[in-house]
Amino acid sequence: MPPSDATAGPVSQALARLVGDGALRFDALQAEAARELDRVATGLQPAPTGLMARLLRSRPAPVPGVYLVGHVGRGKTMLMDLFFSAVPLAEKRRVHFHEFMDEMHAGIAAFRRSAQGKAANADPVAAVTRPLLQSTRLLCLDEFQVQDITNAMLLGRLFDRLFAAGVTIVATSNTAPDDLYADGLNRQLVLPFIAALKRHVAVVPLEGPDDYRRLKFAGERVFRFGTGPEIDAEMDRLWLRLTGGLAGEPATLASLGRTIAVPRAAMGAARFDFAALCDSPLGARDYVRLSHAYDAVMVEHVPQFDRTRSNAAKRFILLVDTLYDRGVRLLASFAVPLDELAGDDRTRAEFARCVSRLMEMQSADYLERAERPLHATAD
Ligand SMILES: Nc1ncnc2c1ncn2[C@@H]1O[C@H](COP(=O)(O)OP(=O)(O)OP(=O)(O)O)[C@@H](O)[C@H]1O
Ligand SMILES: [Mg+2]
Fold this sequence. Notes:
Layout: H1 10-20, H2 28-43, H3 50-56, E1 65-69, H4 76-86, E2 92-96, H5 97-113, H6 124-135, E3 138-142, H7 149-164, E4 168-173, H8 191-200, E5 201-205, H9 212-217, E6 223-225, H10 229-243, E7 249-255, E8 258-266, E9 269-273, H11 274-278, H12 284-293, E10 296-302, H13 310-326, E11 329-334, H14 345-361, H15 364-368
Parallel strand pairs: 1-4, 1-5, 2-3, 3-4, 6-11, 9-10, 10-11
Antiparallel strand pairs: 7-8, 8-9
Helix pairs in contact: 1-2, 1-4, 2-4, 5-6, 6-7, 7-8, 12-13, 13-14
The structure holds adenosine-5'-triphosphate (ATP) and magnesium ion.
């Protein structure tokens, strides 16, 4: 489709614009998936208000969702994000699947501790879904998967309520609905949920030959050493290569009542100055959120560490561990070479594993590996 095709739906148009700008390669399967997402975006119009609402006296008709499924790096998250931006609703939410489930479990636990939760007829699932249903007509879930029976059972009960209330689900996953929780213990208990899911979403496969994430990093040097305008210019170049030429925009990540400010984000990558990421009061949970939200994190101006910077050093170590565990790519400028990163003996001992991981994180094996490890949970 040419970029100027004004009759195309909003997701197709956004995709074509990025292809036209050279930020993305044309991919026929992605274009096809975008057309399915156009259907959903066009169907999800703001609810009528005022007289119209009183005349209709009902919620808008439910719009079946989409379940994008395929191997890693095929562009599922990228498409879901384009779709999410294109939906003209305020009552929409995009969240990483693990974070969503964490939130539900935390809500249920809190309800059980409350006075209402101790009542004989207490229904914790109803209690956690009520506020969700009030504020959400579209729920986008990134990296959907079912790993254990507790989550599987909860999912069934949650989704029954979401579907009954007409909430549209758009999800990305590496696993087709029929293969969810395959070979899991008591799998038959999950089958009604799978059947309900399939009734409410169009399953759209995205199985092109290319892992774009892998292609992006092939042959790339991700670390720079030294300070000054030349190094900064190199980092700018690296960033544009990563985003296909997009400068990026500020973004925020919400995590259980906290907000993490991301100075610049584009195409699955986030860019920070070291001070903003490790010299400010961020903690383990924030770094996990970051590693769920982005494929690549750029950190500029990493200093040499010594005892006077021990808090920032601890945070940096935690950040590197979190990104490493999740296979997230790190791009960074360091003031000094890695073997001088720790400026005194005590700091050197603390940094031993971090430096070893940093060494590995520059390697082609790490950068181009196709499979990312499953997530550690947020706790
Ligand atoms: N058509 C394309 N041309 C160039 N780059 C692309 C294209 N599609 C996706 N990418 C880039 O490839 C990377 C991987 O895409 P994305 O994160 O959407 O993959 P995914 O299918 O969600 O993978 P995973 O299953 O691992 O989550 C992103 O940086 C994205 O911007
Ligand atoms: Mg993804």
